[in-house]
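Field reference: sequence -> structure
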Amino acid sequence: MQAVILAGGKGTRLRPFTTSLPKPLVPVGDLPIIEIVLRQLKHFGFAEVIISTGHLAELIEAYCGDGRRWRLRIRYVREDKPLSTAGALRLIRGLRPDFLTINGDVLTTLDFRALYDFHRRSRPAATVSVCERQTVVDFGTIRLDEQDRLQAYVEKPAYRYLVSMGVNVFDRKVLSLIKPGEALGIPDLIARVRGSGGCVMGYRSQADWLDIGRSEDYQAAQDLFASPRRRAKYLPR
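Structure field:
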């Protein structure tokens, strides 16, 4: 199995950490996030990893090398200009008929092999991993009718919704929807797949998930990795 780590972004949400470090090398506990991801990919049976780099690419390449220390084969594709998350895929040679992509700032207990197998069984053009999140509104919310008569008054309501976990599996054919040299994000690629009549599946997961690009999630990740028991969930043997 083959995976692509999308690690070309500048990590502006995590400044000042990312002023001198690319976001995938920002540490969680005593390990950079990209090493945690690489260890997980190896655990779930992935053999080859392509890392898409851009900002401070040479530091990522120097740290990860050829992947031998994780018993992986690692190669790189470097963006000469920012291509966003999907645009970089068009630069990669030798992508297999189905391949997994993961953002370089994701910390999750998601079973990557189960996601990949679900995609292979379902045969869509793309599969997006999703989990449920909840947001609490810190105000009393009001709903009025057309005559401004009060219809509902709810104090601090909680809303639940599904979010993308930043881990996807694609059929290689979707690359034809990306123009060479085009800067394109994964959400836009998914929209093009659907617009062209392709099927996109959602893979629901109960896994833990944090977006390390958000400062509050980054702090939560540090707290998690301070506990050996909770850290072990993210670093399986």
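Note: Helices lie at 33-43, 57-64, 84-87, 112-122, 186-195, 215-225, 228-234.
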